[in-house]
């Protein structure tokens, strides 16, 4: 049986990536929608054959508890709304998959994790790269020390953001700027390539457009120390295109990806001609939804879970604190 999913928030990601991805999954189908826009409800009902009984708005959302056709709730709203809808999803007794960043703060993540634990349901975070084969191969090369001990990672992800009125530039809705939205991918790569947690960060922020970025960060570069002695140098930006990479420098060679975080066209490389990182393209969203569904069906814990989302928020909070205080900051404990 395929699991029924309810999409909450029918914005760009839901429309262009998630809805089409269901057709490419083995274990998932789009069962229900939650939207605040009646016109979108009409459009989606027709396009995806969704009955009236499976259409909710933000007020009627909790009635999803009575719908046996919904196994998983997928929260695809602006970051500040993730906490509310994950906790309401937990109270509805459903498994919940939540987009990245998991929330705006570490405390929000903690409350989400607690609510899902109390409900006895699984919480997954939409870190699509963790199920992408090039990234998984890089994790394996690091873990198996194919190039010797890992010493240094550099990573970056950014883009030139358009529309100045969008929620991504409002602190209340987005929690922060480039770091929360795309820097988190570079941070993730450092954490899963290192296979350990950063213990200390020091960061620097640059703002060239004080009006557009009045509320959120534009460009940040930061350095992270890991307990083993590995160091990472990372950047993120909303000001320009082009940064989309990570490199792992090891005792006996180097490997990495560039581009690393796009939906397709990913490329891996290594310093040794006999070691290649080449895989056919996969749909990141179909792959991660199937992985979550398999965990739910098997009753096995899914990773990346809420704890993984919390760990990123702890580093992000340390980065913002370092910018504020102008000095190195220890990463908080889970
Ligand atoms: P979007 O702006 O296109 O869609 C947001 C949706 O939320 C819209 O349907 C909007 O109507 C609704 N909404 C409800 N209340 C709102 C409010 N107060 N302000 C603004 N919108 C409101 O955003 P998106 O790009 O679809 O992103 C949604 C979530 O998905 C974010 O958390 C984002 O970080 C994440 N995302 C993840 C990926 C990925 O690759 N995993 C890619 C894009 C977005």
Automatic annotation (TrEMBL):
One of its GO terms (molecular function) is nucleotide binding. Gene3D superfamilies: Dihydrodipicolinate Reductase, domain 2, NAD(P)-binding Rossmann-like Domain. Residues 136-253 form the GFO/IDH/MocA-like oxidoreductase domain. InterPro entries: Gfo/Idh/MocA-like_OxRdtase_C (IPR004104), Gfo/Idh/MocA-like_OxRdtase_N (IPR000683), Gfo/Idh/MocA_oxidrdct_glycsds (IPR050463), GFO_IDH_MocA-like_dom (IPR055170), Glc-Fru_OxRdtase_bac (IPR008354), NAD(P)-bd_dom_sf (IPR036291). Transmembrane segments: none annotated. Keywords: Oxidoreductase. Residues 4-127 form the Gfo/Idh/MocA-like oxidoreductase N-terminal domain. Residues 280-331 form the Gfo/Idh/MocA-like oxidoreductase C-terminal domain. It comes from the Bacteria. This is Gfo/Idh/MocA family oxidoreductase. It comes from Luteolibacter luteus.
